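Page 42, continued from yesterday. The earlier attempt failed because a stray header line got pasted into the input along with the sequence. Redoing it now with the clean sequence only.
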Amino acid sequence: MTKHPRALAVALLLTALALSGCGDDPKPGDPSWADGSAKPAPTAEAAPPGAPQEAAPTGRQPRTPSESPSTPPFTMPKRAADAPAARKVVDAFRAAGLKVTNLRDRSADCGPNGAGLGCAELLVTDAVEVYVFPDEANASNQTDVWGADAYREGAVVLGYANTKTGAAERKRYNDVLAKLG
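This time it went through. Structure tokens are written below.
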């Protein structure tokens, strides 16, 4: 160790410098990090969970941090005027003798809190999913994404990805939709 006293001195000096930086640093999330002060910034006592929040001094209600004042509220799209309603499509399947078991209205999944596909209506059965889009362009885009697991006629898309419907049966559903036009 005595062969390189300079290296040892440099190592000790670097260690001392590194350790001198340790100490009473603010904890992560402490607001004092933002202003560079060494002492934590004074904070108000937090209200217990579930307690009503007081209005801000400006008289306005506090906003959720994720809200943006410039973001308009979401409104569900409306189906194209010339497109049949999803219920009409399912009724046509039933009239043609096709299976429409376990019918569920999943239109809420069309919006931002669901799958966010941008559809206006969605009815799901065990054999087929019926999506009605606001226009043919959106329907075409979604059909391109799903490929062979979808069939489109106008603004209506039949989805088969989450079903066990065979090719021959799919053709029967597709033909009924094509006749509704």
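Notes: The chain is about 30% helix and 10% strand.
Reminder to self: strip header lines before submitting.
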